[in-house]
């Protein structure tokens, strides 16, 4: 019937994740539970995504109070909201066109917020200067990344553009690259050494890719999702990466959305921009860098509001002009997402009335994350056939599962990837929704599952108990 | 310095609008005013965009109350909010993952909201059925349109894909088409007959385009932006369009975001889907249609929240599968934008406590829009060198300005398009920020300006007074 015979190969390259079958089955299971079907669990524990509110953590009161007051300014007439909340909301509304969060803003973002983001970055990086004209706010960091990729990917010539990405890597990045007609080039992180990044592996991946595409950029996510170099990369490793991209003339895409989530005793987040600046010229003047951040991650965790930004460093002014056009000819980012970014990067100060509660809530999340990370590793590593690297940053555990050959065989018979098969059984029998490693990229013959650990402590305990019981039964069934 | 020599021609095709110089100058003028520079106006009247809150109209209280309660559920414990608001917020939160608007939702949209959207469409179209599986929520209708364009535009073959668009047309649509490497093919609306659409003109545009591209779709915006067929298209004209796309095997893109903004005495919005259904088979079973709507437009006017949707009709299941993948592999639309869509299409019912105020606020906007439209036409048509078609729908007046040859000459000397030159003088001397017709496409040798008329009545009067004074002086200066 259709005359749409010819869908672009770029579109055809975008495939559903294996996870989508799990999400679909979860909806069915929930419907069955509603209809009274008896199962060994009362509801599904959903740790598939990295959003803290999904599994029991509460939003930060300060953030929600300011946002509610911006939406419904009549709330500012009541003294039920702390004075600093009302003051903050008033000031934010004055930055909105027509004093309403319902108006379009400048498409690069509300200028006052962009200015404050640059001040936050300067503070964070110990004085390395940041300039508002290099910052663009977007509906989430992934959106900004896709825009920068549009600039990097050339579709005119005969050879395809390549982008080096870690394996494992967040799936949306891979899909963005494919959707633009470019080629993702996986470089494998070394799991046995805590998911470290090794320059020799970057070198190998780059050389092998040169045979079939034109590699122009290196994408790194630090702290990692689903895993990363010891989850938080060391400064010396970052310096190696910077020298590598400089020598190979690659653009550096630094996804730093988990910068607020670092919990290892010896781990500390340092931005690529800071490390680059400290390496001095010529590197600090020449390496082209885009750094991404988001209100969806860290302890703010406002994924549903959609707000992120990119900061650009050392770009050619001609390229910046095209980037500016790309970011300023569409619609603006959601205004409440922009405000959430501002609140995340400018939390209440110690002398302000909202500070004590804010501090307490953030501390609670921090403790939860650290304890959950430790607990998850302990329990998972105690199970036969599981191996989990320490979680010192980010929001996920990404343990390896050594699946018995009979399980792999059964998976093949059912047309599933082996780890999807495992995740499907885990969902069906234990009511735990996770993501399979195959959606992130992994070494041939290895299998993983991803679990979000920024969840309520009690849910974490439940989850681990269910998982442990299930796993022991699974291993018995297939050994 | 840069190794980014080769930016794709698609990206290079995206150009800044002429308007951007006006926006930049507005920021400077506002800064000058803040610093005490004396001007013949105290602030700039900004009627450049179609967002009601920009120029003095207030958001709907019901919408803002529900949104605030969803963000900060503690508000539901107070009886300051009407019972139906609290009930509505509670129900919405139960549809959110983890009962938080901060969680990701299903990427196609919150299922309960998608279901209610389909019920709204069915009601609106007098019973023509709508199915939730054909609806996708997105961060604004333009985003959904770009996704559908990705499916329509083929970049693999040697010949470019063409999309017929009205001239004048909303600039973001043109830029989306260019950004995907396709060709916008303008068909001119007949200004003298109230911006009517004529099938002979579609025919002409299509035939001339076949020489250099492969036309696959027809884009129509009804009610129009900046102008449209008598601003609201007649059913007979829509039937002609449907027969045309069927005969020429074109996909029909119906941008219906202004469906809530119809104010002419004899005008009524009817959707393309309804007209198509009433034409019966074979047309009603075969014409492929995408219809777009948005929470940014109409009397809800929540542009800053970013929520829109597309409904697809008669698509090949294989194509639908690709569309589904495209809409479900990224991040979800902003949750508050999704909720705004739900509230727009399910306003309070007459027996509910919020109804009286809601009804009063909407009526106020409706009256304001109708009166502003009439008033604008009256005043503009009374000025020498102005001609304005009646405004019976949409949110804009798009008068033609007959610029004197000396003004056109002067514009050329300053490197500006003639209507940009006019708008710049209007801004500089009268403090009115409008958009020039050249950003929308217009017949060679004609010049227009676009003014948003969904603004406070007093601001409208001020605007027209300033504009009239300025225009008389401008014409004297250049005649």
From TrEMBL, chains A, B:
Keywords: Aminotransferase, Pyridoxal phosphate, Transferase. GO terms for molecular function: L-alanine:2-oxoglutarate aminotransferase activity; pyridoxal phosphate binding. Its EC number is 2.6.1.2. Gene3D superfamilies: 1.10.287.1970, Aspartate Aminotransferase, domain 1 (3.90.1150.10), Type I PLP-dependent aspartate aminotransferase-like (Major domain) (3.40.640.10). InterPro entries: ALAT1/2-like (IPR045088), Aminotransferase_I/II_large (IPR004839), PyrdxlP-dep_Trfase (IPR015424), PyrdxlP-dep_Trfase_major (IPR015421), PyrdxlP-dep_Trfase_small (IPR015422). It holds the Pfam family Aminotran_1_2. The keyword tRNA-binding does not apply. Its cofactor is pyridoxal 5'-phosphate. Signal peptide: none annotated. It catalyses: L-alanine + 2-oxoglutarate = pyruvate + L-glutamate. Residues 77-467 form the Aminotransferase class I/classII large domain. Pathway: Amino-acid degradation; L-alanine degradation via transaminase pathway; pyruvate from L-alanine: step 1/1. Coiled coil: none annotated. It is an enzyme of class 2 (transferase). It comes from the Eukaryota. CDD domains: AAT_like (cd00609). Belongs to the class-I pyridoxal-phosphate-dependent aminotransferase family. Alanine aminotransferase subfamily. Homodimer. PANTHER family: ALANINE AMINOTRANSFERASE, ALANINE TRANSAMINASE. This is alanine transaminase. It comes from Menidia menidia (Atlantic silverside). The lineage of its organism: Eukaryota, Metazoa, Chordata, Craniata, Vertebrata.
């Amino acid at each position: 019937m259709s005359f749409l015979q010819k869908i672009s190969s770029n579109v055809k390259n975008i495939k559903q994740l294996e996870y989508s079958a799990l999400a679909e089955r979860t909806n069915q299971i929930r419907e069955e539970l509603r209809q009274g079907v008896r199962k060994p669990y009362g509801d599904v524990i959903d740790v598939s995504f990295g959003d803290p509110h999904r599994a029991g953590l509460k939003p930060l009161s300060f953030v929600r109070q300011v946002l509610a007051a911006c939406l419904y300014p009549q709330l500012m007439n009541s003294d039920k909201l702390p004075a600093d909340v009302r003051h903050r909301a008033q000031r934010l509304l004055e930055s909105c066109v027509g004093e309403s969060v319902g108006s379009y803003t400048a498409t690069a973002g509300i200028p006052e917020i962009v200015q404050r983001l640059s001040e936050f970055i300067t503070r964070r990086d110990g004085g390395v200067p940041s300039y508002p004209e290099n910052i663009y706010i977007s509906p989430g960091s992934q959106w900004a990344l896709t825009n920068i990729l549009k600039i990097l990917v050339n579709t005119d010539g005969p050879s395809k553009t390549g982008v080096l990405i870690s394996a494992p890597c967040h799936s949306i990045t891979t899909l963005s690259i494919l959707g633009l007609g470019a080629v993702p080039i996986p470089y494998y992180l070394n799991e046995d050494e805590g998911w470290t990044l090794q320059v020799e592996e970057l070198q190998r991946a780059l050389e092998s890719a040169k045979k079939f595409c034109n590699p122009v950029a290196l994408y790194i996510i630090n702290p990692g999702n689903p895993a990363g170099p010891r989850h938080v990369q060391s400064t010396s490793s970052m310096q190696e990466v910077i020298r590598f991209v400089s020598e190979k003339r690659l653009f550096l895409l630094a996804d730093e959305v988990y910068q607020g989530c670092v919990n290892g005793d010896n781990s500390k987040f340092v931005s690529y921009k800071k490390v680059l600046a400290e390496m001095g010229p010529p590197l600090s003047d020449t390496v082209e860098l885009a750094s991404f951040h988001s209100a969806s991650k860290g302890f703010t965790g406002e994924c549903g509001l959609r707000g992120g930004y990119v900061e650009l460093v050392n770009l050619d002014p001609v390229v910046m002009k095209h980037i500016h056009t790309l970011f300023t000819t569409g619609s603006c980012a959601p205004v409440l997402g922009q405000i959430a970014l501002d609140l995340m990067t400018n939390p209440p100060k110690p002398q302000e009335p909202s500070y004590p509660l804010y501090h307490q809530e953030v501390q609670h999340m921090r403790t939860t994350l650290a304890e959950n990370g430790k607990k998850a590793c302990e329990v998972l590593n105690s199970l036969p056939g599981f191996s989990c690297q320490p979680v010192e940053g980010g929001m996920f555990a990404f343990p390896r599962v050594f699946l018995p050959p009979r399980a792999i065989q059964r998976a093949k018979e059912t047309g599933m990837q082996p780890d999807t098969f495992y995740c499907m059984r885990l969902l069906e029998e234990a009511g735990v929704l996770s993501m399979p490693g195959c959606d992130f990229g992994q070494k041939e013959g290895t299998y993983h599952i991803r679990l979000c650990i920024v969840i309520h402590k009690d849910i974490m305990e439940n989850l681990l108990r269910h998982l442990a019981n299930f796993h022991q039964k699974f291993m018995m069934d297939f050994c």
